[in-house]
Structure formats: structure tokens, C-alpha cells
Amino acid sequence: MKSTAGKNLHGLFPVRIRTRFVVWLTTTLFLVTCIVGVVCAEPTHQQPPEWQTVQMRVTAYCPCEQCCGEYSDGQTASGHNIQPGDAFVAADTQYPFGTEMVIEGYDNDQPVKVLDRGGAIKGNRLDVFFHTHQEALNWGVKYIDVKVQLAS
Ligand SMILES: [Zn+2]
Which CATH number is 84's domain given? Predict the structure, then answer.
């Protein structure tokens, strides 16, 4: 029994070498492809978004008639239906809908999207959205540095 097993192993030896070589070649090719792919793709794809800091006059509003008048229909100028917990901003038309902004003190300094417009919201003026009129009143008027994501 022992000698037969040894014979079988001996016969398999060249096959194992070949298998090892194939595995090594595959792994090497895979690694080379990965490295080349990462090195070559990095500068052209998946660039991190660039942010520009702009000093803005930031006021606040809510969906009430006092803030929105005849436009208090629960929908923003971009056609977004206002949901509970929403946080977004109204900005000048130079900032396309969907542009992300980080407004210090608003929504835990998380990036929020431009989803609305406003008659008085021109140039470097913003209106941040709150769900209640009292929250909007509490915000008041702030002159702050806003981080704006540049259109790519
Ligand atoms: Zn209001």
C-alpha cells in the first residue's frame, strides 16, 4: 500500500508544478493588472469633489404661508416633495439643483443640496429650510462661510 501511494504521488509531481506555475502566473497577472489599473485610472477618474468657500448671507424659511406665500404647496422649485426630516437650501440659479453645500450650524454641518429657489435669493444669498416657522425665526440672519461643491 505504501509503495503504491508513493508511486502515485511521484506521478502527480509534474502536474502539481504546472498547477503552481499557473496559479503564480494568474496571481501575478492579476496583481499587475490591478496596480496598472489603479495607477493609470486614478488621475482621470473618481476625483474627489472640489469645494469652494463663499461668504453668504444665510436666512431661513419654512413651508408656511408667511414664508412661501402662494408657493406653500409642499413642493420645492426643483419639484422635490418635502419630507419629514428634510434639510436643503434655496439658492441663486448660478447654483444648479443638486449642488451640495456645507452651511455651518445647519443640519449638523452635513452637506445639503440646493433644491429650491427664492425671489429674494440672488447672488450670495441662501435660504435654509426648516420644518417650523419658529426654527426659521431662531436662525435669523447669518453671514457665514459656506462650502460649495464645484460643478464637475
Ligand atoms: Zn414660515
Answer: 2.40.40.10
113 Cα–ligand 1 center, Å? 20
62 pLDDT above the threshold of 70: yes
Q: In angstroms, rounded to a whole number, what is the distance separating the alpha carbons of residues 58 and 90?
A: 10
Q: Examine the domain organization and report whether 11 and 25 are in the same domain.
A: yes
As a whole number of angstroms, the distance between CA 32 and CA 30 comes to 6
Number of domains, the chain: 2
Q: Residue 48: what pLDDT?
A: 75
Neighbours of ion ligand 1 (CB under 5 A): 62, 64, 66-67, 133
pTM: 0.68
Indicate if 70 and 140 belong to the same structural domain.
yes
Distance, CA 66 to ligand 1 centroid (Å)?
Answer: 5
Whether 41 shows a pLDDT value over 70: the answer reads no
CA dist., res. 131 & res. 64, Å (int): 9
Which domain does 27 fall in, by range? Answer: 1-46
C-alpha cell at 139: 436662525
